[in-house]
Design brief:
5 strands, five-stranded parallel sheet, 50% helix, alpha/beta
Length: 212
């Protein structure tokens, strides 16, 4: 069964392009598009999507307010922010609002689809330039807790923070995809989180991994 995705974007040309791209996939489809995030939670209830692709800058209600509203009612629904800007304020406001990923609109279609699939599996896709900004922003935050992560778990968490997909983590760590999933499950348990987004946020805030 195809994963259902809805799009919030004020650019009709981009909405059509993204919708067409998704509908060409064997495992995903676009079931609805909206020009702004007004009444976002209501639209979620009506369309019952598996994931939301959210534009950052829209009139009347932007991506941050839409994300915040959706997460208040559907906390486990993945929301991926897309934007032309990678400025610090937008990035951190989106993360605080509960976004599961932050991708620039310049991302090539093939890579975009790979990142959406990763998010559907619980990952937290983030354009590399965005990941660097997030790490730099929190580099001076002190660590206040010991979560007893093994060295392997720390290395996997570092790769997750850097925005790597599960497959990329497996390749870089020379372990199987299945083993990566098991390690990440244990990381979630130790950090007391339920998603990659929460794990990344906590890792950054507590400096659980070396950002350099």
């Amino acid at each position: 069964m195809k994963k259902r995705i809805i799009i919030f974007d004020d650019d009709p040309t981009r909405r059509d392009s993204l919708s067409m791209l998704l509908n060409m996939c064997h495992d995903m489809e676009c079931v609805a598009t909206f020009e702004n995030a007004l009444h976002a939670a209501k639209q979620i209830k009506l369309t019952n999507p598996d994931m939301v692709l959210m534009d950052m800058d829209m009139p009347k209600a932007n991506g941050i307010s839409g994300t915040r509203e959706i997460k208040a009612h559907f906390p486990h629904l993945p929301i991926i922010i897309q934007t032309v800007l990678d400025d610090n304020q937008n990035i951190f406001e989106a993360i605080k609002a509960g976004a599961n990923g932050y991708i620039l609109k310049t991302t090539p279609p093939e890579k975009l689809l790979a990142q959406l699939r990763e998010a559907l599996e619980g990952g937290a896709p983030m354009t590399s330039t965005v990941a660097i900004k997030v790490l730099q922003f929190f580099r001076d935050e002190p660590s206040s807790a010991d979560y007893s992560l093994s060295e392997r778990e720390k290395s996997i968490l570092k790769l997750l923070v850097d925005g790597h997909s599960y497959k990329m983590i497996a390749d870089k760590s020379n372990i199987s995809y299945f083993t990566v999933c098991n390690h990440i499950k244990k990381i979630y348990e130790k950090l007391h989180v339920n998603s990659a987004t929460e794990a990344v946020r906590l890792a950054i805030q507590q400096r659980l991994v070396n950002p350099f």
